[in-house]
Specification:
The structure holds two protein chains of two kinds. By secondary structure, chain A is an all-alpha fold. Chain A is built from six helices and no strands. Chain A has three domains: 74 residues, Up-down Bundle (Four Helix Bundle (Hemerythrin (Met), subunit A)), CATH 1.20.120.1200; 32 residues; 39 residues. Helices cover 71% and strands 0% of the residues of chain A. In chain A, helix 1 packs antiparallel against helix 2. Chain A starts with a helix and ends with a helix. Chain B has one domain: Helix Hairpins. Chain B is elongated, with a radius of gyration of 17 Å. By secondary structure, chain B is an all-alpha fold. In chain B, helix 1 packs antiparallel against helix 2 and helix 2 runs antiparallel to helix 3. Classes of the chains: A mainly alpha, B mainly alpha. At the A-B interface, helix 1, helix 2, helix 3, helix 4 and helix 5 of A face helix 1, helix 2 and helix 3 of B.
Chain lengths: 162, 101
């Protein structure tokens, strides 16, 4: 059910003419993916998805849409026919390939639905934090520097005169 | 029929392909950026699915890093979009072909 909502709203994001509608459907899609994360037992990631994606990133998108004052487009797709044709072909090929991987993964699915039964603490803040601040501490610090660099870079790009 | 790994992977695959279609087909730069978000989300879903399958927590941590990168990418991407639209007056990727050979 949640995945149905996710896929259909994702399709709507791509096909709507008005960018504001695209952004709103993006929120629906991200929230339903968060629901899928919850069903997978990843509570912390689901909460982060709601806060970071649906909260911060989509608001950023909405700000830019309002700032640019974009109008409804007459044609939403590329004008070049060859471009569109090649795009459709590559999309179909990619769809077949990725679905083949999903089907092939049925080999792993034995009698039980999942290989392991998760422990009680699977996916909680505590479980994620323990690994994040021990084994992945360096990567965590690199990620923080990346965010700082992105912030400074974004300001530098938008500012008219430095 | 129980919901298994394959179902989640199929959803992830479809989300990713819709994202690719958006990047390749749409000409509004804003919607292209949104499609990239969709693709990153599909990758996240696959990571968390495998994390659940094999019982390790590492997949969720990679998903967390993907979210960080997505946030950084969106900030810089929208900044570039604003700068370009200020100079060229459009967000149409057909018309922003200055760097195209």
């Amino acid at each position: 059910m949640a995945s149905l909502v996710a896929v259909s709203s994702a399709a709507l994001v791509v096909t709507r003419k008005n960018p504001v509608h695209s952004v709103l459907f993006l929120i629906v899609c991200l929230l339903s993916v968060a629901l899928l994360f919850l069903l997978l037992g990843a509570q912390f990631i689901a909460a982060l998805q709601v806060i970071v994606y649906a909260g911060a990133i989509v608001v950023l998108f909405l700000f830019v849409v309002m700032l640019l004052n974009v109008k409804k487009e007459v044609t939403i797709f590329h004008s070049s026919l060859a471009h569109r044709l090649m795009a459709v072909i590559s999309v179909i090929v990619l769809l077949v390939q990725t679905l083949a991987i999903a089907v092939a993964s049925m080999v792993w699915v034995r009698k039980e639905a999942w290989m392991t039964e998760p422990s009680m603490s699977f996916g909680t803040v505590q479980a994620v934090g323990r690994v994040l601040f021990a084994r992945y501490l360096f990567q965590f610090e690199v990620a923080s520097i990346l965010l700082l660099a992105a912030m400074v870079g974004a300001v530098a790009i938008v500012k008219k005169r430095l | 029929m129980p919901v298994t790994l394959s179902h989640y992977l199929a959803v992830s695959a479809m989300l990713f392909v819709i994202g690719v279609a958006g990047v390749l087909l749409r000409k509004n730069l804003l919607v292209v950026l949104m499609s990239i978000e969709l693709m990153l989300n599909a990758a996240n879903l696959a990571f968390v699915t495998f994390s659940r399958t094999f019982g390790g927590i590492d997949g969720q941590i990679i998903a967390l890093f993907v979210m960080t990168v997505a946030a950084a990418e969106v900030a810089v991407g929208l900044a570039i979009l604003l700068a370009v639209s200020r100079v060229r007056g459009t967000t149409d990727v057909d018309k922003i072909n200055l760097m195209k050979w």
